[in-house]
Amino acid sequence: MRVYKSIVAVALGGLASTVITVSAMSGTPASAAPPTPGVIANLWNWNWKSVATECTTVLGPAGYAAVQVAPPQDSMTQGGSVWWDVYQPARYELTSKFGNEAAFRSMVDACHAAGVKVQVDAVINHMTGMGSTSYGGYAFGKYNYPGLYTASDFHTPTCAIGNYGDASNVQNCELVGLSDLNTGSDAVRTKIAGYLDKLTGLGVDGFRIDAAKHISPADLAAIKAKLTGPAYFHQEVIAGGSGEAVQPSQYTGIGDVDEFVYGRRLREHFLSGQIKNLNGFGESSGLSVPSDKAVVFVANHDTERGGSTLSYKDGGTYRLANVFMLAWPFGTPSVYSGFTFGNPEAGPPSSGGGLVTDTDCSNGQWNCLDREMSGMVGFHNAVRGTAVANWTDDGNNLIAFSRGAKGWVAINNGTTAVSRSFTTGLPAGTYQNLAGSGSVSVNASGVATVSVAAKSAVAIRAGASSTPSPSPTTPPPTGTATVYYKTTWTTANIHYGINGTWTTVPGVPMDAPCAGWKKKTVDLGGAATFQVTFNNGSGTWDNNNGRDYTLGTGVSTVQNGVVTGNAADPCGTGSPSPSPSVSPTPTAGNTATVFYYKKTRGWASANIHYQPTGGSWTTVPGVPMNETTCADWAKKTIALGSAGGLKAAFNNGSGTWDNNNGADYAIGLGTTTVKDGVVRANAPEPCVPEPPDTTPPTVPTGLTTTASGTTVRVAWNASTDNVGVTGYEISRVTGTGAPLVRAAGATTYNDSGLDAQTTYAYQVRALDAAGNRSAYTTAVSVRTGDAPPPPTQGTPLGGDPRDDTIYFVMTARFYDGDTSNNRGGSQNIRSGNAANNDPMFRGDFKGLIDKLDYIKGLGFSAIWITPVILNRSDYDFHGYHGWDFYRVDTRLETPGAGYQDLINKAHAKGIKIFQDVVYNHSSRWGAKGLYVPPVYGVRDEQWKWLYSRKDPSAAYDPMVEHQGNDPDMTPAQNEMAKGRPYNGDLWSTEEPTGNTCRSWGTPTQYFSPEGYRIYNCQWPSPTSGMFPSALYHQCWIGNWEGEDSRSCWLHEDLADFNTENAQVQKYLIDAYNRYIDMGVDGFRVDTAVHVPRVTWNRRFLPAIYDHITQKFGAGKAKDFYIFGEVAAFVNDKWNRGSVNHSAQFYTWKERKDYSADDVAAALEQYDYEEQLGPGNQPTSTNAFLNGNAYHAPDHAKFSGMNIIDMRMHMNFSDAQNAFNNGKDSDDSTNDATYNAVYVDSHDYGPNKSGFRYTGGTDAWAENMSLMWTFRGIPTLYYGSEIEFQKGKPVDCGPTCPLATTGRAYYGDKIEGSVTASDFGVVSSASGPVATTLSQPLVKHVQRLNQIRRAIPALRKGQYATQGVTGQMAYKRRFTEGSVDSFVLVTISGNATFTGIPNGRYVDAVTGDSRTVTDGTLSISLTGKGNMRAYVLDLPGNPAPGRIGADGPYLK
């Protein structure tokens, strides 16, 4: 059970009754008694169809005893945006987001057929946190569930859990506001038992009791006693401190208990300790229940989000902990497979209405660990009941032990491979590695010499030998099928079904008639066909990607997923059992032997998915690379026939891919190695030790340097190498200074931002993959010229912001105009960006300047750019970790292409610049010029890689990065130091004078991810005393809908300003005045909700408008567009009932006088407005027509801050949903025609999805048609015009390459030249950008921009839906001065407009003209994303007629 957020929603009408009935069901439990111990697969939040498939194809064949599934009952719905809605039951009908009752029953039956028991996550402690509507369409109140529970069925009087030392409080009060069932009531117990009996009647075998800690053991025992049959229980009783009144041991008399301490301890040992200390791991290690009562796990859905255990994000470490769990004799193991996430609140991948989509382990959205652990499940089953023996460790992070004479495992959690001899306790033989690839040979003494790679494991067991088991050879009977299976497995079984009757898992052994083939003859009786799967007896299966193979009589071959019927004998003989002495004839044709390096990615195994030249791709995920090879490598030999090569991508079988950043790998004949993105053709076998490459590349020749202003172009001729040149290093020296070294992948380098009239000397050398470096070239000197003159300050363009459409770019990820300012930072290698040659700071202002015509050609007249101020953190390309608010980040600027240049050149093309600004927080290292906290640091052997040597003359400059070449550091330390800018200004070993951080420099109990001891005051935090309370807040946010969300830190990287302090206010106001002076046209305000509204209204907003007025005049101030991010990530009108946290709230002035002190005023305002609540907030008609008439809007109460339309954003899973929700909120917004409207962004997709929008091209087109014609200002996140990175995680920090996320580099798509002759009109384009501009959504958005620009009512008009029938249809009008524009719009479907003015209407899409004489116009329309916009022809305002040419959607 997690700490749920309270959910506030409006209860809907149409209540339905709910009656629990228990009747005879076709399903029956898999056994008549509670399940015996065995491995549980926790397929959390998988839908029923996917669970059924997994049981059949993976869990059953692998030997899993049970599957645990998500709560199946109907629950409150948040439209799929969150995962926790299913833990708020609405009724006990089986209508959940995972499927209906029929699908659930089918899932149970399928799992039982595979020999897998089914356990259900049962939520019986509570119901919901507030009334709403369920996934099944059932309306309910918090204490009223028609036909099920009334208020008398809940604990009264209501109270909140607050004292875990009081059992009554814990078990009789509400857990985070969830209505707490009175489980002491017999009536309630009977209804709960009825629900559980209903499930067992469908065949369910057991239950995981959610929140069992909050039900007294007596109540839970009484409920269990009411069940009509036996059922296995394991109970969620989270172990707290010894002072807690409720302990897990109190529940062992009822059933097993989920052992939470187990996963916490494993995290400590595997992440920050030494796994050698796991020797003897058990109750004496502080675990809360005995082994025979414990269900153990490395992670579950709560702990992976809360951080108390490891998670899939820990990569190989997480996998090793699971290997240990399955090998070690304690408890019943549970292997967890869930979905990947960036936002811990986000729900699983879902479709319309929040229904969970089918699990796809190959798309990166799911983590299918149950598959990776299949071999270890077989190990666990084989060694059950045996004792640990032959324990070995290296005193650190390598351990090995045997389990009796049945199994042996070695786990290396270290960073280097370990080779040694181990006593395994197993008989002599060769055994398959069940925890990875390859095999292990054990001699007659039971000893094996094994090399265990870093972050990997080896596990072998009796019965999993690599020696094939012979089968008797008998002549095939009539009605038979002879099956040949091509494989590199040493042993293969065929598991088959004839007329629905299958062999017992794992099937029957196949013979080995010749090299590379397995064979079995099967008696089909009278059947003409049968279904077949294959496995290696150790948990690895080939089931044709879940479809099974269908074979017929006679001879069939199965090779690389391809079935050939009536085939020739591939072993070249008609004999059913060829003589061993006959040498097989090799298959004719070309072959490619591919080696893939797994170690860097932490993969245990690899598949190759390939396409021979001129051929077809293999079926995803490809074929296993399972040929015997050495540690760290996977190998596959591929028969290509006449093909001369192939394209390939690789994956680990669990959804993680390496496809060469979307380009795939080109591989030729012969032996090829693929290592860390580098393809080496005609390579020696990597497992045969090569003589070390000690030959350096040749010295580059022809070095030239050319100065242009303060930029120097360095060029040279390429070097050669016996293996291959991998790059170059350019050394630059000024006078007698130390050389500064830069890296280049090509033979040119632009060095910009140099000092004017200064002589620089350059040298270049080449390097290869082995680290060999050539000698430097002879130095060539060059003198720079004059610096370019500073650009003149700009002036805002002005004009109503509603006339614009906005293109949103992350500057550092858009287009690289100058490579010399590219910087990867300290996380370049760890993130995987270095391997992709994709530094985090890649795009720049020059790139934006170069591509202004691309943006204009799309039709956009405003660009919203991410923050430009100088940032300071390990991963700050996004701009939200501001350190020097008075300085533009140097990684974005180059001479002649600074921020002022961008503003001026954009203005010259009629394009506005809206700058993202941050008032809420600074970087974790404070804000230069306001306060920079001193932190503890020490340059010892553990930490000197992190801390720069002190240099009084040095200052923080992210353009100057550590080169990783410090002779006083080890290679490993240099690698960690590489990319770090100077930080000697921050740290001190001695406690500085005036320090306020508590316990300066004392060691803590914590360790860094590298395993190093952490000290107090080493890292900034709000609670350490490190920051002065006058300037920074001193707490963490605990309630995101509470007052603390405005006065506490929201993230460890974001030091929260005390924005009610006058010194802080002046610092920020003065800083942002500098950018106003440069001529920016507006501010997008980041995290606006975390600053009290009264502070905005008193201080910051007036300061902005006053300064613009003084500088540029009142007209420019009126047109300056401020739009705030008031992040309400919910689907309701008011953010869970909290007005202070709702977007529209920030569009209003204060309506009461508060104390003069800003701190007191913020609290007074919060309490006052919260008490008034949603029902007493001001309303507005500014967005609405009066009938058909426009009226002058009343902005007297407007605060000055417009908003991002969070409600439409959250509901843009489909346009209709966004439209309905948008209309519902408009009366509470001061003027919704100014809302910034977008589908997705750099933070989230719709419904708070952690992935870029993946609704499909048609859905995108429909969303755009709505955004461009409905009220508000359309805003598009870069690349959405081509569905760039659709379905990719929005962000994963430095844990994965940027290229795999929604923040990938876009420049490759817009290389080439483009010229825009007008907004939405491209006169010429060449190169990749021309291809991009030809895409369907590009054409769509270009025409939408043309239409919108031509019709004032679409830009600034009020709207109405009265007298309008149609799904998305509305009328809009704008009247001002001589302008009078009236338009009728329908999107994607028919509409009828009644009561409209008579006259001639002309459609802007088709040019169709209609004359209305009776006030009615009916429009017929088909095509998702299509639209009609009929404009009334008025005197002085003629209808523009057809605008633009037909495209893929508007036609």
TrEMBL record:
Fibronectin type-III domain: from which residue to which, for each copy?
A: 696-787
A GO molecular-function annotation: metal ion binding
Tell me the InterPro entries matching this sequence.
Answer: A-amylase/branching_C, A-amylase_C, Alpha_amylase, CBM25, FN3_dom, FN3_sf, GH, GH13_cat_dom
Secretion signal, residue range per the UniProt entry: 1-32
The GO annotation for biological process reads: polysaccharide catabolic process
What cofactor(s) does the depicted protein rely on?
A: Ca(2+)
Q: Does the keyword tRNA processing apply?
A: no
| Keywords attached to this entry | Calcium, Carbohydrate metabolism, Glycosidase, Hydrolase, Metal-binding, Polysaccharide degradation, Signal
Which intervals of the chain are annotated as region Disordered? 781-802
The text of the family note is:
Belongs to the glycosyl hydrolase 13 family.
Q: What is this protein called?
A: 1,4-alpha-D-glucan glucanohydrolase
Organism from which the protein derives: Sphaerisporangium album
Q: What is the lineage of its organism?
A: Bacteria, Bacillati, Actinomycetota, Actinomycetes, Streptosporangiales
